[in-house]
Amino acid sequence: MAAVDAIIQQAIAEGNIPGAVLVVGHNGKVFYRKAYGNRALEPRREAMTLDTIFDLASLTKVIATTTAIMQLVEHGKVRLNDPVAKYLPEFAQNGKDDITVRQLLTHYSGLEPDLDLKTPWEGKETAYRMAWAETPAQPPGSGFTYSDINFIVLGELVERVSGEMLDAYTARHIFAPLKMLHTRFVPPAAWRSKIAPTQYDENEHMLRGVVHDPTARRMGGVAGHAGLFSTGDDLARFAQALLNGGDGILSPLSVEKMTRPEQPPSAPVLRGFGWDIDSPFSSNRGDLLPVGSYGHTGFTGTSMWIDPTTQSYIILLTNAVHPRGKENAIALRSKVATAVAAALPLTPNEKAALCGMSITGYNEALSAARHVSSRNGAVKTGIDVLEAHNFDVLHPAQGAEVKKRIGVVTNQTGFDGEGRRTIDVLAQAPGVSLDAIFSPEHGVAGTLDTLHVSDTKDEATGVTVYSVYGGTDAARRPSIEVLKQLDAVVFDIQAAGVRFYTYETTLGYFLEAAAEAGIEIIVLDRPDPITGSFVQGPGTDAGKESFTNYWTIPVRHGMTMGELAKMFNVERSINAKLTVVPMEGWQRGDWFDSTGIEWVNPSPNLRSVTEAALYPGVAIVEGTNVSVGRGTDTPYELMGAPWIKSKEFTAYMNARGIAGVRFVPVSFTPTASIYSGQKCEGVNIVLTDRNALDAPELGIELASALKKLYPADWKFEKIMALLANQAVYDALAAGQDPRRIAQDWREELEKFEKVREKYLIYK
Length: 763
Hints:
- By secondary structure, the protein is of the alpha+beta class.
- It is built from 23 helices and 21 strands.
- The chain is elongated.
- The chain starts with a helix and ends in a 6-residue tail after the last helix.
């Protein structure tokens, strides 16, 4: 640890800090513990000691307030997705009625960084009244703003729900059980000589044992955002308790939940509940500890970082603001964390675990940005892999004297890497006889936009093409009698990665029919064009199955057709004889343009990757009386109607601060579908960051705006056809904020992800 000592001594010599206490833990024990320099320079010098008590500043947020909130969550007294106003009704004023406990904990509430300190005021009740009167500076959930107000409110929430003052609650339920004997708000006079002073206040009095934060000071020293005092040894006990899974003050599940990313799913700044994971404030992680570790800092010069991978913690306590508030410990924290991580005596297993994780250093130019990079891939689809393996899964049984009779479900998207139709490839495959072709919605060539798709013959092969699309349920299902004439049916269609895209239901119907006919079904896999890494949007209610809703899955499920087939077959108890021929070279984070595969429109109005990215959102309102650009050159990039005022609608949508998109006012005249030949006003939706966009939530934003701005014109009730979720429908009808609505479906998403995980082919 000589390098660490040198770094801290240099910071003292350069006047960045007067002194420091460093405590490093590793594998359940204190690995290193040392005091450096002085705890006071003015009015007289005092040497730093290991038992020095520090003003923790914002470490209060995670040590005291977050822990208290999570205890109340465990006891069922608080729910994270509930609006704060459920517990503090006064908070609801001025547009804050839909701000949730989750948004306060993650700093996505939209509130200002701090209460107004320009005018004199005193007392907790005054602070709370000021917090109740705050108006969000940006729409809640739209962006990250580190805010003391969030935790001032959470401190009051603890008091209101528990019936105990925050200082009494935390002493009884957190500090006493962990034997943190030198941790508390408003330290007694007997502790004063051991306390590191901070700086001179506005009256030239040195703050010592009085909280440095001016807001907390005006509140009497006890607040949810600041005010706690503690020692390095006490914080080491707390950090070790978290590494141990809570040590009785929290359950292991609560520790895991509050220290993993809990911010809005597409947001780039990663925050747990209270804890920092990867944000502009994460400099104290250093360059070697992995994302997945967590920590926090305090303005006075305090910090802690905890890494479950190496079972380590780094506590660095300084009073950098002493004596005049001109210095800080930001650069020092990063250097110390890097040097400590390099010096840890890691076991082979710990080294292996660390190497298997993403070691992402803090980059001040690109702080907290998650970059899902595009790549120049060369993906082989299922048909390419089938060819490369000499059609092995289609070979007739050993000793059979006749060819294997097969059918194929496909359309214009079924082609191999050489551009040959899957139909033609299979017609020439050895040992098989192509006896039937089945075409889904839009026909075998993918050009029809009508319910009336009849049976035909394929010109090149002469094989009958059976339509499995029409206006009735029977017309959308394959004939069991036709299937019984086959030994297997092959499925090769490029889908859109969206629940209400009908090719997924066609897949489900063929699984059912193959099981009934007693034949094998072989799915040739293709990419999810909008990546397999995002799971977004509401699921559907049981009992609302339809041709646009085969099963209760989210709007954007992040699965390929092969993976869906595996899941449908088991979870719906179909039990067909299923074989999936997987792709080679596809990665879950791949957008379609990273695959090297030629884009062919999977349906007439889905013409680009951009439109595919917007489709899971814009299509949610498509069944209502708005145009989504069908009959224009850019379907799903437009939305409008004759009764929409384009500038008004654009201004409203841009003010919502929706990640990944911007809106431009436009007029357009569709040549097909609804409002054909009529001038529509509306918006052009500009995709600015496809990895940041939560498209299904965009759909709810559009619906909410339409209902709010045009209640007499928009036929809201028609949204249920594709939405198929009564809770979301009712929330929209009640005028709830879209981000609040999206939070409410996260629990169901997490449950689905656990089911989904069992069927994923690609990691």
